[in-house]
Write a structure and sequence with these properties.
The protein is mainly β. The chain is built from no helices and 27 strands. It is 0% helix and 54% strand. The strands form six sheets. It has a nine-stranded antiparallel sheet with strand order 12-13-14-15-24-21-20-17-18, with no helix packed on it. A five-stranded antiparallel sheet has the order 11-16-23-22-19, with no helix packed on it. Strand 25 (320-323) and strand 26 (328-334) form a beta hairpin. It is globular. It starts with a strand and ends in a 14-residue tail after the last strand.
Amino acid sequence: MHKYIAKIAEIKKMGKREEGKFQIYTLSLKVIIKDIIPKGLKPPLRIKGKTVWVTCEYPHPFEPKLGNEIILSPEELQNIIPDTPEDKNRDGYKEVLLKNEWMEVTILPHLGARIGSLVYKGGNYFAPALNHGRKGWVDTGGIFDLIGEDFPGVLWNAGFEECETQNNKNHRTFRYDKKGVEIVKNFSLHQSLPLLTEKTRITVKRKKDIVYSKYISVNIRDPETTLFVPTEEKLEHRVHQKTLTFTPWRPFNYYGVRLGSFLIGDNKGGLLYAAGPRKTEFLRARYSLTSFIIHPVAEKREMKKGESFIYGCIYAVGDEYKITRDSIAVRADAPHKRAFLVRGDDKFSGIGRWNDR
């Protein structure tokens, strides 16, 4: 979702057309790339200072002038960004792809080793989002971690280094070691199920108060997309209302989240997020016209020098789902295969038989 700031060095008029009372000019602009939005990211070395021609339309009299700055998207720069196996979307940064016959998961090491996308049968569950807050523009798409109450914290754009793994492309480890904290993130994609496991270990190098949570932006894929949150008391749910032209970002808080689990479901299937028992203290959710924003707060603790804690969770997807206060079941169908993914109580193994009754 990042964009580039570029300064106009040359302007050529390519054409003109009438649209109502306006004259629309097509301009070819020669621009010099100066910086990047969000500001916390560093532009790739091969991008900054380069020149590129872009074509834009402007209504008269709002045409830009020499020296003005404009915003470019990565798509407008793909002719100067090399096409490499490690940069499939050609934005100048390395991605890591985990893939089986069910799912494709993209990890972004330069953005906090976050899950940037999770694609099942051609549909991406996680929404790219560029938001403006008190500290400027922030990329809040996908899933990133927070280790404090200050949003967006230091991890949303933290650079993680990939560690050596044992010849398993679907098991990857990433490490961050700055600001008195070491974070090691492990991702593992099941070889034959649409199931991703994430395990995060946080170690402090000095006494520190930690509030660990996740920030998850989930795509609204259907007018009746619904958030289901089983709690100790009942099954809570919020139905997305896509017909509204404006939706207040009023948060909804859920306490006593059953097994740290929730599900986003629609008529195309469901995405299950599940953590261990008592691993989610509360869950805050809100929604816009295009996405659910879900913020599970997992750990609040005072940590001594050298102490660690581990947080693990899973992401499972499928074509059909069933939810009660005590369990979530997701069924995934594919040609010649069928998988059953169920989250129930502590003793449940995670795989079982689907019973329509």
